[in-house]
Amino acid sequence: MSTILAVAAAVVPVFLVAGAAYLVRRRCPLDVRTLSTLNLYLLIPCLVFSGLSRRVIEWGLFARYAGAMAAVTFAMLALLYGVSRLRKHEGAQRSAFLLTQFPNLGNYGLPVVLFGFGEAVLPLAIIILVCGSFLQNTMGIYLAQRSRHVFLGALKRVFLFPMIYAFCLALVLQRVGWRPPTGLEETGVFNSALLTVMRAVDLLADAAIPVQLMLLGAKLAETRLDTGADVFIACALRLAIAPVLALAAAWGVGLQGIETSVFVLQVSAPTAVGMAAFGVQFEVKPVFLASAVSWSFLFSMITVPLLLYLLLQFGG
Asked: Distance between CA 81 and CA 93 in Å, rounded?
């Protein structure tokens, strides 16, 4: 019973906040694009820096997470490509089908990990977010525009996002032994100035996860739902097969205990909201991608609590 209550306490708040934002967006006009821009260029970088600067992250752990993320991504791509051939997809439909494999690591994955395993493991989820975002914003854009040979352009686009620089800065400061000041007892003008800046960063970091959940709900309120077979096949692969591949990849690279549980849970999130944005931006079956995002989110209300229950019972 205690595990069931822990699962409910971890998952229900995610759906409540997203659901509230969904209802508000259905009744009121909201400038979701502006909120999304603030989240991407301000809140997420602060969350990344604040989360990583306070915990020593082994370079080996980062490499293992990067390897596991790449392994799951390529395995899912191969699987979806095979299914797409069987479904006789061509052109834009095949590209859109492949894009559904990217999980919602931020808006959905971060809060579920936070509530499911506690704040102490949030830096692990942030590392996974950074690795996954790199792949989504390179391979994702390439798949959306693969007929235009834009992989190098997609790679350059990644380095426009401050999250990458916040991540690198936090790792570099760790290597030189710097730690953020924790209180006014650390005297000196320089430490006081650093403390002031870090408190501002922490305020923005604390806003990141609630804002991401509200963005998720508001985005879902703007989508149309398709009920074609391809949508439900994509959802099944994302929510049922991806966790198995994530577990295999975690074991394959040597992740253990809570490191494995965080990775599996986060990678088992529904399709990333950004894929619906790619569909509109690059004219790649936008209704299909928006539907995959919405339906996978709804189905995750069953699959993610079940997975979290199993991880809490049998994981590290």
From this structure: 11
